[in-house]
Write a structure and sequence with these properties.
Mean pLDDT of chain A: 88
Strand content of chain B: 15-25%
Radius of gyration of chain B: 47 Å
Strand content of chain A: 15-25%
Distance between the termini of chain B: 183 Å
Structural class of chain A: alpha+beta
Largest interface: A-B, 117 and 123 residues
Number of strands of chain B: 12
Largest sheet of chain B: 4 strands, antiparallel
Organism (chain A): Rubellicoccus peritrichatus
Number of helices of chain A: 9
Order of helices and strands of chain A: HEEEEHHEEEHHHHEHHEE
Number of helices of chain B: 9
Protein name (chain A): SPFH domain-containing protein
Oligomer: heterodimer
Mean pLDDT of chain B: 87
Number of strands of chain A: 10
Main location (chain A): membrane
Subcellular location (chain A): Membrane
Strand order of the largest sheet of chain A: 3-2-5
Pfam family, one (chain A): Band_7
Distance between the termini of chain A: 171 Å
Shape of chain A: elongated
Low-confidence stretches of chain A: none
Amino acid sequence: MSFIISFIVGIILTLIAIPAIYKLGGQLQLWRIVPEKTVLVYTLFGKVIGTMEEPGINLPITQLGPRAFLVPYFGKVYTVSTTIHQYYLRNQLVNSEEGAPMGVGIWYECYISNPTAYLFENSDPVRSLSANVSTAVIKQLSNLQLDVLLEDRDALSRKVRTEVSPTSEQWGFTLGSTYIRKVAFRDEGMIKEIERKVVNRLRQVTASMRQDGENRVAIIRSNAEKEASRRLGKAQAVRPKVVGEALSEIRENEVVAEALFELLDLQATLKSEGKIIINSGHTPNDGTGILLNT
Amino acid sequence: MEIAVLLIGMVIAAVAVFLYGFYTVGPTERGVLTSFGRAQRLGNKSTIDDPELGALLSDEEKLRYNYPVIQVIKPGGPYFKWPWQKLIKVDMTIQTTNITWDPDIAQSSIDSVTKDNLTVEISGQIRWRPSERNLYAYVFAVENPTAHIMGYFISVLRDRIATFSNEHEDGEMELTEGISINDLRKNVSTINQYMEDSSRKTAARYGIELDAALITTIDPPPEVDEALASINTTSNNVAAEISQAKAEADQTLKMAEQAVQIAENQANAEAAPLLELSETLSRMHATGGREALDSYIRNASLPLREKAAQTIITLNAKNS
């Protein structure tokens, strides 16, 4: 029986007692485990006596001296995460220069850069930072032209960040990137009015597009008619050009040309269906004629 | 004896703990090991020393997003860790997140204001995965990486929607100028490309690589949608009419061109026999002179006599 008890006690000592001792040592500040992106802030008798930032196993006595052993009884260790947090402030009310009521959403990231200040400078630094960002947004973004508000977000975000950063640093916060995530119209009537204007503009565009199409069709047709007329005129001028050039070439030899036209006359006469009367003399006055075949 | 048994129990428990220390990393996973809470670092290297990640950050950003480079355990195993070590497994598969996802509220779409002040509804997804080169940021430095990347992405997206207008390289004015919803809808792929380029630095900042931006719809209000549909219908009709007019014009010009061709052919047909006959006569003239031509003409005139209804013959012309 005692064998079993001893065996179980051995297992318990190993599996339970060692982790317990491990944890107890931490609470007694014999050693402390600091996870990544975590800072331990030590206070003793109401005063901050040091911080532990290096991740891994730390020996408080080497950093804080013998005072570390008093901390479990007369002090406190605060654990602060230094990871990047992100927050989104929705629907911050601003008015544009034109008087349009706008809702602005601002998204920002921040991390704790000074854990001591974060713990003791402000009772609620997160809400205070949020309020500061909100105030800066309203201050920087109010009374801006609507176009600027909508389109210059980068510059405006930087302004907000510049304004908020000094104060937040005092509270241990470092403000990271800040973005105007949303700019929206709050007034439903205004949204409808804009929609109506856009619809009207689209209708105008439709009418213009139709008219433009008709004009382009008319231009295409008239251009085609103009070109076709030019080409038909060219067709009419082709015969005089070609035949004229041929005749000019023939006329270079007058004798041949005369002979040619005499032959053509003969051919044409032969083709004629009309009555042919021949004067066989060289000229009608060459001599007395006899009328035959009557 | 009891102490010996006690020690045996302790040894067995220690062996059990030791055996519990073996682990494997799945094919889609990467492992990060911490010893007493501290991640295993690769020397003193940090994010800004990485040529790929460091180049994505501005000088001011390098101060804020400077993380240590840690050792990443690749898929495989078995590996071993001591009881004081803790294993963090990271799923490296590509994740798809709807852009309407918000850690605080439920919504079916997100709205955005365009350059012409119109409020439109946007829907789509983003695909992302942890950056193996910067796992420290993903695992340790950012409280909620998914919410973070969405906050950043939506901010950039709305900014782009508010400033987007189609830039024409040739400077041509379009009738739809000033109606950015038309441009937005036609250029969704351009916007997605812009989002992917703009979100590239999230790997250095938050340890998240954006795989793709998939904005699928940008919907205006119904009335505007109808007006846009009307524009598109008109545009199609106009294009069809212009196309038809061009076809008709081409046909008219073709016919005119053919008329020219016909006239040329006819004129050539008329001139060709003249030229041929002229050439024949020229050769005749060259060899026989004027007399040869006269003879030929006289010979050619003979058929007239056969066809003549009346013939006047000159007699004794020289004596009359």
